Amino acid sequence: MGEPEATPLLEARGVARRYPPRGGVGGLAWREQVVLDDVSLALRPGEILGLVGRSGAGKSTLARILLGLEPPNGGEVRFRGQPIGDLDGAGLQRFRRAVQVVFQDPHASLDPRHSLGAIVSEPLAVHGVGERRGRRERGAQLLREVGLPGTELFLGRNPRELSGGERQRVALARALACGPEVLILDEPVSALDVSVRGQVLNLLLELHRGTGLALLLIAHDVRLVARVCDRVAVMAGGTIVEEGAPHSVLASPTHPATAELVGAARWLST
Amino acid sequence: MPPIAEIAGLAIAYPHAGAWRRVVDGVSLTVDDGAAIGVVGESGCGKSLTALSLVGLVPEPGRVEAGRIVLAGEDVRAADEARLCSLRGGVAGFVFQEPAQALNPVRSVGFQVGEAARLHLGVGAERAHPLAVELLGEVGLEHPERIARAYPHELSGGQRQRVLLACALSADPRLLVADEPTSALDTVSQQHLVELLERLRSRRRLAVLFISHDLALVCRLSERVTVLYAGETVEVAGRDALVGEPRHPYTRALMQVQLGAQRPERGPLPTVPGEVPRAGEWGRGCRFAPRCPLAFDRCRVARPALVPLGGGAQVRCFLASAQAEPDGRA
Fold first, then answer.
1. pTM for the whole thing?
2. Which of A163, A205, A261 shows the shortest C-beta gap to B188?
3. ipTM strictly over 0.90?
């Protein structure tokens, strides 16, 4: 751990992922599907890395593999230089605590049977942080940090009573509960109204400034990624096809897949 | 020629704590034959309910309390279930946001695409299949005969949305209602779908009612745009006038949150502070006043009327209507 700057925080090295044939009735998916093919991507401490690509490019699969939720068929994921496949129970628990996620659909990712207080403080209980009463107070504080009321009344409310933007803030508060080092955001605003997207992304930028958390922001819209990220990687057909500074990727894309994404973004904004 | 669809003074209410509470309250909308009309507003402004009311599909326990709804010359509020059935799909085809939920998982794509033709045009089973294949080709799907035999789960999101479009066109309707058809798609598929809608519109002389929270997208496809806020119309204008000179502060706010692709400088993104107030929390003044950067005292106590500005444009704002009329200072 001599040079923390030199070691990426979270890294995919030559990751491959294949799904077995499904034998579809229409004969559309009868072959083995290669979802990821030799993907290498490194997230450095404190940076905001954007991962863009079309639906089906493999972005979400890569996210699940980086989170350790799905094993790669080839290659490995390293956290602070250590392969996560080698981690023992306690090491894995530390890894899970350090690398958190916010998913796209805030309707599906919050348990409708739980109160907001229970949702936000659950990670604290899972990781044995503090005692019961302290966890409730920490939950209220987390909600305030993401711009929601931290009152008892609000803690007792149900996710169904919230708007999409509010739910995504709750998902963010839950991800931040245990003080993670890496936050993976898989299309965090694409299910939200255009008018609410800015609010959620600005909140992310604010939290990033305050904590120095490393962020991996996955999106299909290059306009968003260019506004928020330090670096952008473009994914197509299960591989990384281009990587660079957002302004240069947008101004002069070198790969056809990037050019297609940039072209669509331009077309949609005029 | 009379308009294909006309809504005037629409009010839709839902029961709440023992009383009826209006969630759509004063929306008017005219779709001329072959026209492309856009409806824009954030979630909860009443866009989808307004569209669903056209074919008598306001979800239970809601009810239409007031207003005139005419589709292809027929009074929708007075129509019985049989008439409504023939209007649905036969006159107005619908495409919704979530293609995965709108398609039946246990029926082949071809069966579902041909369904409306069998139902409304009396097409027999043997002719419905080739028709479905033809429609799948028309919506730009490659290998249409193979897609027709597939099931929805075997297709990508973009493919499913095209299938849904083929279903909506199956009975050769005169109006296509597209309710957030691109929101579940990536940007490249969004572009392709909007281009496809443009082509279909001119080829089939189809009227399109396009609904979205994304103003740029709505302006891309529509000749005229209606802006809804908190259950009421706040601005109506031609596309060019709306883009060139948006009158209502809410329209301007929706325009400001658009992310340009040309200037990707970093930093905080533009936002519209606050949220759409829920029905019942609208207050007696202008419903947008709590979020409006230009609101003054009168906005908080009096509700502005929808004022015609000439050229068919309308705006519901004290400031905007005063500015449009040099003598009529508010």
1. 0.90
2. A261
3. no
- Tokens 């331009």 correspond to A266
Cα–Cα distance, A198 to B271 (Å, whole number): 5
Which of these, A67, A158, A175, lies nearest to A121 by C-alpha position?
A: A175
pLDDT, chain A, mean: 90
Q: What tens digit of pLDDT does each residue of B48-69 get? A: 999 999 999 999 999 999 999 9
Choose the CATH number for A10-105+180-269 among 3.30.230.20, 3.40.50.720, 3.30.70.270, 3.40.50.300.
3.40.50.300
Of A26, A197, A226, which is closest to B264 when you measure between CB atoms?
A226
Any CB–CB contact under 8 A between B17 and chain A?
no
Interfacial B residues in 279-318 facing A (CB < 8 Å): none
| Ranges assigned E (strand) in B92-137 | 92-95
Of A201, A207, A191, A241, the residue nearest A223 (C-alpha): A201
Contacts of A222 in chain B (CB under 8 A): 187, 261
> In the predicted model, what is the mean pLDDT of residues B160-186?
94
Region A37-61: mean pLDDT is 95
Chain-centroid distance of CA B177 in Å reads 6
pLDDT value of residue A4: 45
CATH numeric code, B5-91+173-261+268-324: 3.40.50.300
**Rounded CA gap, B168 and B90, in Å?**
9
